[in-house]
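Example (one chain per record):
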Amino acid sequence: MSGQQNDLKYTSAVALDEVSVAPSAFFGSLLIFFISIPFVVFGSGFVVMIGAVIIVLSLVDAANIATLMLTTSCLVDNGTLVIKYGMARRLNISIPATAVRDIKIKQTWIGTKFKYGSVIIVGDDVGVMVQYIKNPLAAMEAINKSIGR
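Predicted structure:
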């Protein structure tokens, strides 16, 4: 089984190391931020407004990705897929392995170039999209293998 065994005495939790957030997504947001600065500094009128909006959105996106990089974890514990992410609003999503119906990958053009994307897990009564995952195909295969699909 992929991943590594945690040091928990009474559970059989296996952390899936393949499900991690890609640093390239973070650097992509920062790149957009730095490219937008000349529009604000050297532009005029409408160009300055567009540049300012892009700067704010790229900073918000970079902060979101940094938070996900620090907090996202995926593990399998006693036949249950557990996904945890978020800092201010911590989300713990548990899906029994038998309830997982489909696992999909969603990638943008930029995501394919920088090797990151989203993994969408659909269960019987819940669905979750984990964003900015490094090498989403390997993450999907690790999840499938760990839950016995």
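Caption: The longest strand covers residues 116-123.
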